[in-house]
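@channel sequence for tomorrow's demo:
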Amino acid sequence: PTWSPDGRQIAFTSNRAGGPQIYVAGVDGGEARRVTFTGTYNTSPAWSPKGDRIAYVSRLDGGFNLFTVKVDGGDPHQLTQGTGDNEDPSWAPDGRYLVFSSSRGGHSKLFVTDASGSSQVQLTHGGGDDTSPAWSRWLD
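structure tokens (generated this afternoon):
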């Protein structure tokens, strides 16, 4: 699960509809609402710092790619595509970028993309696998 920036909601993965999908629920209880409808296997939600979008991973055409969706489930947007798996999204504190792991070159490496997905840059190199990035918060 991932907390909304205001701490009033959580986004989480559930297979209550058959395959894994992203849901949002208020922390005070109540009915969870589904926010992903594209793809049959959606996981790894990451709430944007502004609270307006959720990044997630979706299996499409045999591989995993990053998407974002509005909190109400509208405007799904694909950020990555092509070969390899793209997983583990983490938002920059200002919401302008996401860091993620990708196996597009064989071993998993860390990449950064702008929130539109139009610019992607590899951050790590070497022979090992680099996975599960987490962007640090602003320093006080």
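heads up for whoever presents: Residues 77 and 130 are 25 Å apart (CA to CA).
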